[in-house]
Give the backbone structure.
Amino acid sequence: MNAGRWMPAMRPMLVLLPILMPTAGHAQPANFAAPEAPASQAGYGEDLLPRDEKDRAALLRTVAFDATVYGMAAYLHYEQLYRQAFDRSSSNYTGFNRFAHERNLAGPDYATFKVPNTDTLYSTAWIDLSKGPVEIDIPATQLKYFTLNIFDIFGNPSNLSNRTIGVKGGRFLLVPRGWRGIPPAGVTVYPAATTQLWILMRAFAQSEAEVRTARAFQDAVRIIAPEGKGTADSDGDTSPPPPASGAIGYFRALDYLLRANGWQPGEEALVSRFRLLSIGGDRPFNPDRLTPAKPQACLVSLFHPPTNAISAQLRSAGNGRIYAGR
């Protein structure tokens, strides 16, 4: 076949090839998404809020209610986090990246949370990844059962247990979102969804000998954190507020949690609406910046009956310390 006869017909295709072939500039399809939501409350502009005061108040009540429901699980976690990691006057204060161990099995007078296992020693720790990855070393053990439940700040669980990793233990590196480092040899990378994590560790024990084995296991599980004090605050301009009753205290804590942890992928549109209430914006939450209608909207939302029911059910389930059961 004479290749020269085909060249004129192929020239248009040859011209198109550089356009059709994937390149660094054309590897991904064009992004037709809308521009990112304004980072500040002021950035929304008056044109994005109803002109009528009643309609505006209704919108703000709706947004405040959504923010209340969205952040409730994170807030209940935060009450525990604050006591253990921030409040030095708390009886169970440890700071970040350190376990608080319970050394005895639960009896009739056990008051830490409701309906505990009577064959389990519990340990809890709050992890801070704001300074980088944190390593968890789990020793080999003869325990019949152990688990390290790892919850992100929104309560989504995963676990390292004899059911998932066996009884030989291992080394696991909890890494923050977007981490691109190289783990040490023999260490398994464990991507974390949020910067702050809660570890609830359980070790099975019934007899006195098993209690001694479980205590030894508690002591042998190690948390190895980076040097330096973690701020757990991505912006560095917000101190963790103490949990407080009422709408203002709740939204101040939610703003801190979103700054420190971000949110789950796919929730950007939902969370960006909260900026109308000065939550998750470019400046820390400050109720003084709210117009007179907005604090009222917050209060109406927070104490709306359905929200009270949600809060009461969650608190009753764990008495402030949830996920205790096996």
In short: The two ends are 75 Å apart (CA to CA). The first helix runs from residue 3 to 20. The mean pLDDT is 80.
